[in-house]
Amino acid sequence: MPEPDARFMALALSLGRRGMGRCAPNPAVGCVITRAGRIVGRGVTGAGGRPHAETIALAQAGKAARGATAYVTLEPCAHHGVTPPCTGALIAAGVARVVAPFDDTDPRVAGQGFAALRAAGIEVTTGVLADAAARDHAGFLLRNAEGRPRVTLKLAASFDGRIATASGHSRWITGAQARRAVHAMRARHDAVMVGAGTARADDPVLTVRGMGARYQPVRVVVSRRLDLPLTSRMAQSAGEVPLWLCHGDGIEPALAAAWQGLGARLLPCAVVAGQVEPGTVLRALGAAGLTRVLCEGGGALAASLIGAGLVDELVGFTAGLAIGAEGLPGLGALGLSRLDEAPRFDLVETRPLGGDVMHRWVRAG
After folding, report:
1. In sequence order, what are the beta bridge partners of 153?
2. Which whole-number Å values give the CA distances from 325 to 163, 269, 318, 342, in the listed order?
3. Residue ranges with strand state E in the chain
4. What region holds the CMP/dCMP-type deaminase domain (predicted)?
5. d(CA 348, CA 354)
């Protein structure tokens, strides 16, 4: 591919990443408009999914968009939704060429955007940095294909894989740099999810702090019986930061009403073998518009997700201390009898963070 195409698409992808965690259900798209090799406009999908990146970049470019090339990290939309289609805006602006990695898999678009551009006489080039774009849009593409968000499981543990002492003391296993990295991860996801045990034991807030964040992820708690303290910090902040509760059937109407009165959203899910079934949890979250979910435990929820093959990425933070066998493990029981039954992940990154080590893995295959 021509070197400028790769360079400008890489810039568009970096812009799109700035929108991760605040665009759902829309993809975090980046757009760069160039004319004669000079950037005249740039944009990223706005908070809540609008305005679209192309609209922002075209407004910035103004008249300079005529005869220009637009680098977009996903096929421009072709359907009328809350806003007019971006293909129409590109055509009206007189853009001469559009470069994108691949078709949008949303059935409302699915090649129709490119077809409309070509019908208007605009040159369309695809396949540019497609692998990188697929990684960036993985959550959006997975929701289109399977109806569920992409799941990242984060575990912070001692060298021997423990997340707390036998008494439950866990603050802090990792250092300040690792904790700051976790807040950055939260900011790049649509939601942060924990199990009921973690919510009861730690009373977490699960917000992004210390990052200048103005857009908070949804907090999700998986609790079969909704047996969570109504006085917890998450409960008391449910009217300010979204709180969604994934629960089983048979919830007392008064309890459900109490949570809804605090501002929580209730998502009923199937129960299998006495546990909320993780597949239905993720499908419920996907139906509600989420594309990227960060799971921060606890051990039972993490094990159920791994056991069901629903963890797409593992991020571990390992500290240089040992707690011992009496400490609490990071994962619950998986019921494995042979190593070849264990889910496999491929290492893609490792780096030091202060006195800790961060390692990132993706599902094998």
Report:
1. 295, 314
2. 11, 34, 16, 21
3. 30-35, 38-44, 69-72, 97-99, 123-125, 150-157, 162-164, 191-195, 218-222, 243-247, 265-268, 271-272, 275-276, 292-295, 313-319, 328-329, 345-353, 356-363
4. 3-125
5. 20
Q: What is the pLDDT of residues 224-247, one digit of tens each?
A: 999 999 999 999 999 999 999 999
Q: Residue 121 — very low, low, confident or very high, per pLDDT cuts 50/70/90? A: very high
d(CA 118, CA 273): 54
Tell me the one-letter amino acid at 318.
T
- What contacts 279, CB < 8 A, 6 or more positions away? 148, 308, 310
Cα–Cα distance, 58 to 98 (Å, whole number): 13
What distance in Å separates the CA atoms of residue 29 and residue 18, rounded to the nearest whole number?
Answer: 9
User: CB under 8 Å to 195, separation ≥6 — which residues?
Assistant: 221, 222, 223, 297, 298, 300, 301, 302
Give the pLDDT confidence score for residue 106 in this predicted structure: 82
What distance in Å separates the CA atoms of residue 72 and residue 250, rounded to the nearest whole number? 48
User: In angstroms, rounded to a whole number, what is the distance separating the alpha carbons of residues 226 and 267?
Assistant: 11
CA distance 53 to 63: 17
> Is residue 349 flagged as an active site residue?
no
Bridge partners (DSSP) of residue 361 are 314, 347
- Partnered with residue 10 across adjacent β-strands are none
By CB neighbour count within 10 A (0-12 exposed, 13-18 middle, 19+ buried), where does 204 fall?
middle
pLDDT digits (tens, 9 = 90+) for 142-154: 999 999 999 999 9
CA-to-CA separations, 241 to 25, 129, 364, in angstroms, rounded: 18, 36, 35
How many C-beta neighbours within 10 Å does residue 187 have?
21
Q: Measure CA 237 to chain center.
A: 22
Beta strand pairing status for 275-276 and 271-272?
A: antiparallel
Position 103, amino acid: D
Rounded distance between C-alpha atoms, residue 27 and residue 73, angstroms: 10
Looking at the DSSP bridge assignments, the partners of residue 44 are 30
Candidates 54, 75, 296, 313; catalytic one: 54
CA angle (124, 126, 131) in 5-degree steps: 160
The C-alpha atoms of residue 177 and residue 83 are separated, in whole angstroms, by: 41
